[in-house]
Every structure is written in C-alpha cells, then in structure tokens.
Amino acid sequence: GAVVSQHPSRVICKSGTSVKIECRSLDFQATTMFWYRQFPKQSLMLMATSNEGSKATYEQGVEKDKFLINHASLTLSTLTVTSAHPEDSSFYICSAQGLNTEAFFGQGTRLTVV
Amino acid sequence: QQQVKQSPQSLIVQKGGISIINCAYENTAFDYFPWYQQFPGKGPALLIAIRPDVSEKKEGRFTISFNKSAKQFSLHIMDSQPGDSATYFCAASKGNTGKLIFGQGTTLQVKP
Predict the structure, then answer these.
(1) Which residue among A6, A45, A95 sits closest to B98, beta carbon to beta carbon?
(2) How far apart are the C-alpha atoms of B109 and B90, rounded to whole Å?
(3) pLDDT digit of tens for each residue in chain B (112 aa)?
(4) B44·A44 Cβ contact <8 A
(5) Do A34 and B99 touch (CB under 8 A)?
C-alpha cells in the first residue's frame, strides 16, 4: 500500500503553546487528507477534511480556530493545535487519499500537553 | 448519534480459534465497509474491505460477511494467532471518499 508519514510521532508541549503536526504522502499525490483524533481506548473521530488548495471542512464541534489545517501541496497537510491545553492531549492521526484510491493512514502523533 | 455500532467491546479467543466481530450501520448511503487493525501507539492499518455488491470477501485468514438487508457486516479471523491480538475497527463511508465513520472498536486477545 501507499505510504503516509506523520511527524512527529510524539510531542510534549506546555499549556498555551502551539504545536504543528505534519502529514506527508510519500509515494502518491493526496488530493484529500483527513485528520482524526483518538482518545485512549476510544475510537477515531474525524476532525476535518482538507482538499489541496482549499479551506478545510471541519466536523461539528471541532473548533476551526483552534485546530488550523493547511493543505498547501498534494503531498503535505499540517495540523496546528493552537493554545494547547491538557484536554487537547490525544492521539492525532491523518489519512491521505489520492484520485480513485482508498485512504491510507499515518502512524499517528501522540500529543501531551503539560 | 452512533452511525456504526460495533460489538463486542472485547474478545478473548484461544489460538487456532475463530474470532468474530460484528458491526451494524444505519445510513443506507454507505457503500464502502473496511476493517482496520490497530496496535497500541500506531495508526490503523487496512485489513480488508467490502462493497455492497458482494455478500462475502475473503483474503487469507480474514473474511468479511455482508448482509445488506440487515445493514450488518462482520469480520471473521480464522485460525487466530497471538500476533492478531490488537484492536479492530469497522468503518463505513459513502461514495469514493476516505471520510470514514468508525465503530467503537473491539480489543481482541488471542491466548496461546
């Protein structure tokens, strides 16, 4: 299958700071990328969908000003958690989809806000 | 509103046994039903997927059974191995989109 790389795999940040997570499709062009959040022992919940060159579409209840998504190229999307708080601590996972392909998941980023 | 309901929440199976996980969906517009395997601290990996035009799909030890009228689908893992111990998620989407609605997950433990 195609490879989606997420970076960093783990990050610890102080409360009130911002942190950026990168999602890259390494061997295909991702026209659409998806960002999910997973709390411990829970399922994946879709946060937002982004298409290259367009504004992201956020799911109900997800603050777009807190979770900034940029999809500036066909191989890179970034999620920035702004003014992070301990309740934002979670496992963030991206997936990337090309034209007429399934979506492939990254390995996830464990965010801990202290 | 939980659009995809998964059961059981946890499952213990002896090595060599059959693991069965069930999912039910509500939205009849869903037309893509994948199963994912997730190990702790890792992203989910696609195991097998099915579309509503077939009732069963088999890949190696993994089989999906699909019942369109009942809006249910299940994953069967034959000859379960300790290495299969992981969390399994069913999901559903509509159209050719990677926008997936996940079930709640099943933690499988295969005892040696």
Answers:
(1) A95
(2) 17
(3) 569 999 999 999 999 999 999 999 999 999 999 999 999 999 999 999 999 999 999 999 999 999 999 999 999 999 999 999 999 999 999 987 889 999 999 999 999 9
(4) yes
(5) yes
